[in-house]
Amino acid sequence: MELIPVKTRILTPPQDDLYEVLSESLPVLAEGDVVVVSSKVVAIHEGRCLPIEGTDKEALVAAETDFFIARDYYRLPLTVTHHTFLGAAGVDESNGGGYYVLLPEDPFASAHNLHTHLTQKFGLTNLGVVITDSHSGPFRYGATGVSLAWWGIEPMEDHRGRTDLFGRVIQYERSNLVDGLAAGANVVMGEVDEGVPIVIARGVPRIVFTEKDTRETLLVSYREDLFRVLYEKFLPPNL
Fold this sequence. Notes:
alpha+beta, 6 helices, 12 strands
């Protein structure tokens, strides 16, 4: 598998044209490629930016999060949005040029739109799009990539019913491919001044392409989550 970086010009908040940048910078795509795109450039394309001056960040974060977990030992709460633990609900100042850059309002709709545009532009049948952000996880320093949305691919590989090297039948195991792609692409994208908001994953093993909306294949409702014991007392009744 290859992870091919796509360096672009700077997309400038509060709004810029990602599709123009794709036309300028994206090489010819091939059948079976997965295009991994930073949520930041998608959000800038959609005008999801607010000037830092005069904006109440705490109120903005509260408005953007599904729910949050207060921490008396730290100045900011844990925030959950789009089924993901994200710092400050994804509201980011880095590479914002004096603006807060939010997340895309509906990342799956954004991924669907990009998928439609790219399949039509390159005349492709099998293509994936993944929109990513970076976040920190428990018990670890540092950030890794995580998928916010995807289109055109099955996000998981199901191993149930297969046998391992010693003939044991697999009963539960499934692989989260889409977050693995996001994490790998994030290493290539970088976090600061690399200018690589797009990565092409080529030759992804065992990837399955589809036209269906597959979010429910991967995303677990908060109430059914095996890890809900860690946060359930903070869940609002509507979630």
